[in-house]
Design goal:
CATH class of the largest domain: Alpha Beta
Helix content: 25-40%
Number of helices: 9
Strand content: 15-25%
Oligomer: single chain
Strand order of the largest sheet: 3-2-1-4-5-10-9-6-7-8
Number of domains: 2
Structural class: alpha/beta
Order of helices and strands: EHEHEHEHEEHEHEHEHHE
Radius of gyration: 20 Å
Shape: globular
Length: 278
Amino acid sequence: MAEIKTILVQASKDDVGAELLAEAAAFAVKRNLHLVALAVGLEPMPLYGGPYDVPVEGYLKELQAARDEVKATVEWAQGRLAPTGASFEVRGIVATTASAGGAIARQARYADLTILARDDTEGDWHRLVYAALFESGGPVILWPRGAELEKIGARVVIGWDAGREAARAVRDALDLITGAQDIRIVVVDPQIGPDSHGEEPGADLAAMLARHGLPVTVDAIPRENRSIAEAILSHAQSIDADLIVMGAYGHSRLSEIILGGATRDMMEATKRPVMMSH
């Protein structure tokens, strides 16, 4: 079981960013973690009208503006974090829109956990989450606005499909849920058999977690006319779960984007923090 000692959070100078930074700081203080806040500026793309027609002056002006904005965000984040008592550092990077996700993922490789905001808009947050999941090698918590990170880990729902990604998510979450009061292993329309959920769906995972001294219950629930994500979210609401743990993209990301799937549906709909691993 890997202990979580360092968390990475994106610092953005807006209402959502301010709330996330405050939540991450409280989370870090409670668990004695080191917080790395990362400010990301978007580098302009140079426009090429021809081989000798490069608007260098305009490009350099916009690039400097992006750097100045990152510097301002770094100073803003430092001012926000200094009174919290958290162990922290603030970093700043400038990247193109296309490479921003990869740049964040490279920073996330040196953290035990990345926390990113879930947004209701069709902005870049999807790309950032994808990059962190696929390129960092570590777990991601998707934080919906209003959720209290400081309190996560007391009542936990594990979305269990017996897959590799779900197993990794459970292991990644162990340090967060060691003091849990109630852990529900939720299996939706479980398939009995050695190549699926086993002869008794959820029982093997429950036994493993019980050996860690965790209070575990297996809840097999019907999907009915809901998506898998909707079924899990409904169950999480019924027990007032403060954290959902699940594997991300057991199927290809492209197929989930085109056809839909549990990961993307969860990202779009959750009102509770979700910890995902790939």
